[in-house]
Amino acid sequence: HVQLVESGGGVVQPGGSLRLSCAASGFTLSDYDIHWVRQAPGKGLEWVAFIRYDGSNKYYADSVKGRFTISRDNSKNTLYLQMNSLRAEDTAVYFCAKRYYVGAFDIWGQGTMVTVSS
Amino acid sequence: QPALTQPASVSGSPGQSITFSCTGTSSDVGGYNYVSWYQQHPGKAPKLMIYDVSSRPSGVSNRFSGSKSGNTASLTISGLQAEDEADYYCISYTSGSTYVFGTGTTVTVL
Fold first, then answer.
1. Smallest CA–CA separation between A73 and chain B, in Å?
2. For A87, which DSSP code?
């Protein structure tokens, strides 16, 4: 069964850090670009970042550039999103998604909730 | 990168066709044929409905179709059904090698 499973969400204070994981099963993660997308409570989708299949290039939304780092460990079939200097506005459900075509993501995880609050 | 502009809500009766837009700039929607559309039901992950402006993934009903003119992409749902009631988001590749989503459109089946 092809799926992505996110983990690592939780409650963190402003200025704190959190690392999200995205584990793949049923396919080889190293064959695909993977994206992170987030959705604040009651709000729309926001593209966050993506990493090339081989880790050679990484791209970020302006809202997280310099604070978030995307990485992957293809030997573990797992992707990561290191989030530092967290702000209240980073509160959201974070999804990882597999590239199908450019801007087209065919497999999504169930999402993991990140709450930034004191 | 500001979000692409979508109407907040669109409604239609069962069997009708509806079309709604996704407006960007020449740096995103207008500059590339890389617009996709997603359907999202409450509490669920988004589902890919259209990619590359007008292509449908396997398994997606042919009642869904996409198009683009200039800086505006559009999604049409024909033969509207109750299960089409959901939020819909467009996304486009941008000149900065990043991506930007639309503001989202809530479709209501009357």
1. 22
2. -
Using the Cα atoms of residue B3, residue A89, residue B41 and residue A110 in order, give the sign of their dihedral. Answer: positive
Nearest residue to A45 via CA among B97, B107, B51, B47: B47
Compute CA A105 distance to the chain's CA centroid, rounded to the nearest angstrom: 13
Question: Per residue in A70-105, pLDDT tens?
Answer: 999 988 999 999 999 999 999 999 999 999 999 899
B59: pLDDT confidence band, cut at 50, 70 and 90? very high
- Please count the other Cβ atoms lying within 10 Å of the Cβ belonging to residue A87: 14
Q: What is the dihedral of CA B8, A61, A80, A66, to 10 degrees?
A: -140
Residue A102 buriedness (CB in 10 A; 0-12 / 13-18 / 19+): middle
Asked if residues B81 and B99 have their Cβ atoms less than 8 Å apart, the reply is: no
B7 touches chain A (CB under 8 A): no
Sign of the torsion formed by the C-alpha atoms of B105, B60, A52 and A83: positive
Cβ within 8 Å, pair B40-A45: yes
Question: Which residues, 6 or more positions from A100, have their beta carbon under 8 angstroms from its beta carbon?
Answer: A106, A107, B48, B51, B57
Chain B residues with CB under 8 Å of A106 CB are 48, 57
Give the number of A-B residue pairs with CB atoms closer than 8 Å: 71
